[in-house]
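Thread: quick sanity check before group meeting

JM: Hey all, I'm pulling together slides for Thursday and realized we never actually wrote out the predicted structure for the chain we discussed last week. Dropping the sequence here so it's in one place. If anyone has concerns about the input, flag it before I start.
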Amino acid sequence: MESHPKQELALQQRRRKWQWAMIAVTALGLSACNMSAGTQTANSDAPKNPPGGHPLSEGITEEDYGEFVARAAELVSVPSNDIVKSIRLSAIAVNLGRSVYDKNCASCHGEDLKGSAAAHAPDLTDADWRYSGDDLASGGLTKLPSDVEWTVRYGVRSGSPNARGVEADMLAFDPQYRNQHDLDDFGKIKTVTTEEIAALAEYVLQISGQQADPAKADQGKALFLDNAKGNCFDCHTEEATGNPALGSTDLTHKELYLFGSDRASIIDSITKGRRGVMPGFEGTLKPEELKAVSVFVFFRAAKGPPPPS
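JM (edit): ok, ran it. Output follows.
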């Protein structure tokens, strides 16, 4: 029995909307896991093409909008933390966010979101968030889509008063490399010698699981914890696991080092300091694009461990 052309078109449109609903449901499920206890596995394949779903790369047509897929303009008035709770809004956010990411973020963070050593840009698919979040119950340990949006909107040391990292950068132990802000705070005082910088580097190599000179590493540890000499613990903590409130690196995981984890790179970082910058996109991206790319990145990040009770 032959079907009428209009009936076939209606069936195709219904199937297409159902496929978009499946995509959005998958995204919503990932979000629910991401904002609660989870594993350390990155969502490298989500949401791309869930079983029975429509490939995101094929885009959305006018017929898709409505019950299962929101229009991009609808994102503007909805908080990003609520977008991830909606099937319709998540579907459009993921689709639009991928496009915005490719045009504005991939050049630094990579097409696969794995970061770039050359650009000193972090991996966005792991469970490490360099800066503290805004979740009250966990003291900022649980990260929300709004935390990603804040970084995208205002950047890192971008010049905006709302930017991340404004309160701290990594001080250059050699005064000749200090910026004006650090010169105003610390002057040209030199608290460690070239040999002591080398010892600090050995300690950092040791705690990050790399080959190091044990005797020099012991000396470096003492300097690391000495508030009159290295004073590294003041930003990186006594355990060297980093302080999200300052955006300092967890030194026990070399894969998180944005400026290299070999001996020469570590010495260079200690000597010259580090002041990573990310531009803010407020005013560059449309409001709906800001929301969409933030939600897209949030979905692609690994699900971190639950905060301590």
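AS: nice. The chain has eleven helices and no strands. The domain at 175-272 is CATH 1.10.760.10 (Cytochrome Bc1 Complex; Chain D, domain 2).
JM: adding both to the slides.
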